[in-house]
Amino acid sequence: GQQVMQIPQYQHVQEGEDFTTYCNSSTTLSNIQWYKQRPGGHPVFLIQLVKSGEVKKQKRLTFQFGEAKKNSSLHITATQTTDVGTYFCAGPKDTGNQFYFGTGTSLTVIP
Amino acid sequence: DAGVTQSPTHLIKTRGQHVTLRCSPISGHKSVSWYQQVLGQGPQFIFQYYEKEERGRGNFPDRFSARQFPNYSSELNVNALLLGDSALYLCASSFTSDPYEQYFGPGTRLTVT
């Protein structure tokens, strides 16, 4: 079945360092979404990418959708303590409206 | 505007019992999805409803059922609870049934003993 994997599973960075998480799907995705979940909280929508090779930026966050639409990445420049949380990618099933969430990358920022 | 609301926030049940979880979507949103999130894992899709019809079902046993009401609120029912059903149950609403940004509620923490 379809699988969405993320690496790394955990990442500890010093405040000010950059951070990248990678998302890989076993099948082609029509679109991909990114969510952030703070400890004890619920997932919060960050962005949706639809086009092959698409790149979107939100302040210090850069999202990229691969040319083959099977992988994606989230890059954070100059991390801050407010960036702490688990970042999930989510892709829809080939048919229907089911979303498969990735395994998540837990980011810890050390002040 | 109020976000997605869920009730109850916490629930403790015994094996074999049944449970009903409730969700109210953001005003104007017609799609509601349910997810199960076990500690340390990503949310797992259970159901999606749009305009009171089931639009998607994840790989969960028939003990799990759901419905959506005319006001677009939704209920998730789980029968014959197992210890493994202990998890955070998240409801997410979106404007349409198409892949679109989803707004999650705070979740219901279910503990089965």
Describe it.
The complex is a heterodimer of chains A (111) and B (113). By secondary structure, chain A is mainly β. Chain A has one domain (4-110): Immunoglobulin-like (Sandwich). Chain A has no helices and 11 strands. In chain A, strands 2, 4, 5, 9, 10 and 11 form a 6-stranded mixed beta sheet that branches. A 5-stranded antiparallel beta sheet of chain A has the order 1-3-8-7-6, with no helix packed on it. The radius of gyration of chain A is 13 Å and the shape is globular. The relative contact order of chain A is 0.33. The model of chain A has no long low-confidence stretch (mean pLDDT 93). In chain B, strand 4 and strand 5 form a beta hairpin. Chain B has a single domain (5-112), classed as Immunoglobulins (Immunoglobulin-like), CATH 2.60.40. The model of chain B has no long low-confidence stretch (mean pLDDT 94). Chain B has 113 residues and is mostly beta strands. Chain B contains no helices and 11 strands. Chain B has strands at 5-7, 10-13, 19-24, 31-37, 44-50, 53-57, 64-68, 74-78, 87-94, 103-104, 108-112. Chain B starts with a strand and ends with a strand. At the A-B interface, strand 5, strand 9 and strand 10 of A face strand 4, strand 5, strand 6 and strand 10 of B.
What's the quick description here?
The complex is a heterodimer of chains A (111) and B (113). With 111 residues, chain A is mostly beta strands. Chain A has no helices and eleven strands.
Largest sheet of chain B: 7 strands, mixed
User: What name is given to the CATH topology of chain B?
Assistant: Immunoglobulin-like
At CATH level 2, the architecture of chain A is Sandwich
Helical content of chain A, roughly?
Answer: under 10%
Jot down its keywords.
heterodimer; A: 111 residues; mainly beta; Immunoglobulin-like; 6-stranded mixed sheet; 5-stranded antiparallel sheet; 11 strands; B: 113 residues; 7-stranded mixed sheet; globular
